[in-house]
Structures are given as C-alpha cells and as structure tokens.
Amino acid sequence: MPLSVQLQDREDFEVRTLRALGGGAAAGLLAVAASRMHIHVDAGFFAVAGAALAGARTDWKVRVGMLLGFPVLLNLPDMLYVPWPLGEACMGALAAGVVGWLGTKWKPRPMQVVAGAVGAGAMVPLGLYVKTVMDARLFDGRLGAVGAVLGLTAVALFWSVGMLAAHVSVHGNAVEARGMALEKQMSGEAQGLVARAVTLYRQCQKETARLTAGPGKSELVGVLEKMVREVFALAESHTELETQLRAVQQGDVDAQVKELRAKAAAATDSVARRQLELAASSLGEELNHLDLLGRKRERLLAQLHAQVALLERARVSLVGVKGGDVASKGAQAEQLARKLAALGQEDSGAPAPAPLPESTKVMS
C-alpha cells in the first residue's frame, strides 16, 4: 500500500512562521543596538533566539524560561568548539526542539519533534549564507538597521520553514491516515465513532497479518477496507450536515416566522398583508428544510453506529479464527471475507425508512 503524507495543523505552522519573522526583525534591531555599544553580535544566535521566542505559542512562564535558558543552551555548540556550519545547525536544532516540545498548540509526536529540529537546524546555515550575500551585494557589509533587520529576518524565515518537518505525518496505510485526519476535524459522538473505527481497523489489520498470502487474504483485506471507508463516508456526510445546521439557528427562524405572521394579521392594507404572508411562508419552508436536515442527521448517526458495530463483528470474527488453521488453509480466509461481505450487504440492504414529506409546513 502506498505511503500517505499529510501536513498536520497547518494553521499552527503559519502562525508560528509569521511570529518568527517578527522575532527575527526585532532581533535585528537589538543586534544594531548591541553593535553600536561595541558588544559582540552573533547574528545566528540573535536570529534563532528571536524567532524561537516569538514563534513559541505558550504561556509567559515558559517563555520567560526560554529567555533565560537560551543564552546557555544555544551557546553550547560554541562552548564545545563545534565548527561552522555544524555549530550553527546544532544551535537551530536545539531551539527548534525546545519550541516543538513546549511551544506548540498541538502535540507532535517525538519523532516529529526530532524531524522539525533536524529540518530547522539544516536551514540555519543556509539562512546565514543568504544573509551574508545580502550584506555583501545590497548593504556593502555595513550593519545598518535595514540590513540587520532584513538579514536576521531571512535567517528566522529559513529556521521556521525548516520546522515544517514537524508537521509532516507519514502513514504506511492510507485508510488509517484518512481516519486519523477525519477524527481531528470532527467533534462529539461522531468523532468517538470514527476513533473507534480506526482502532478496530488497526486490530483487524493485526489479525489479518497472521494470514498467509493468497487470494483469500487479499479479498479479506479489501472487505475490511471497504467497511471502514463506509464509516468514514458516513462520518463526513454527518459532519457536513452538522455544519449546515450550525450555520442557521432554527429558533431565530421560527421567531421571525411568528413575528411576520403577527404583523400580517395586524396589517390593514391587503397588499402589505399578502407580502408579509408570503415572507412568512418562505421562512416556513426554510424551517421545513432545517427539520428535514435534522432528521437526516439522526439517520446518518444511526447508520454510523450500525457500521461501526459491523466492524466490531468483523474483528470478533477474525479473533475467533485459529491462527494455525488459517495459516494452513487459505480457503478459510476467503470464506471469512465472503462472510463479512455478506454482513455488509445485509446491513446496507435493510429496508430504508419511509421518505420524509417535502412540505410539512411548520407554521406554529
């Protein structure tokens, strides 16, 4: 199965990048002030520390701790006489590791934190090289305010872009990746059902991994994938309906209908009364539509429960099969796949409820 690569929490990355640019610009102004007081300026340290402090999305206590700890932590490569550009890369990696661990709204996995630290560290020397070229070609080597701000902002940009690796998630199973992404987009009861479906699918995968390769196993894997994909499709439809219903407050529409009808009853002009009645009737049709959407949402949720229960039955059927027997007889895997497919057809073939009337006007 091909790998699935996803970008997680893009909004967090975009916000941190913009804030890191501001931190790099502020660090440039601070570097100018320090140079005018004849204080040694380490452009890499100022840019990385400024970007990390500004880009970290955490409370003030953690930020103060970072402010006090960075002068020691980020200068460790220099203290250990790590040569350039490895020293600058280590400095960027240390800062990115701290931000990835403490300064994000979402919680990346340890390997993602490491990937972000490596990516940011690798980009710092490149950012410093770009700054050197800018100083030589544009600012003639002078550490003016404009040159310092643009140069350190460029370093901060490269460092922040390197942290994009912390937001990349690679899955070996595209179906599981889709379920995890969908789970993060949902809330409430549907989210719990999707999470349960993902867990059941993982358990089913472990059970099918015991089977010997053959047509029966391939058919079984395909049936399981189809079952869990149906769960995800139902969950997506349910989420769309939830979004539509949240966009409109049914109580407000009902109140408007009552108000328009009251005005129509009190109107003395026949034309005005007719127009108010037409407006109330139009809103009444909107109430009917909202009611239909609400009923459809309930049905989708019920179908979602049923599909997850079906996946649970599939897991129980897989667990009940003796591993040794299946390994020796691939026909049993094929038989189990057909049994699960029959369960799915039986569930989808259940008689559908009677369609809702299209014009049950809600006029009260």
From TrEMBL:
Q: Where is this region: Disordered?
A: 343-364
Q: Membrane-spanning residues where? A: 17-34, 80-101, 113-131, 143-170
Does the UniProt entry include the keyword Membrane?
A: yes
Keyword entries, A-Z: Membrane, Transmembrane, Transmembrane helix
Name under which the protein is recorded: Uncharacterized protein
Query: Which organism was this protein described from?
Result: Archangium lansingense
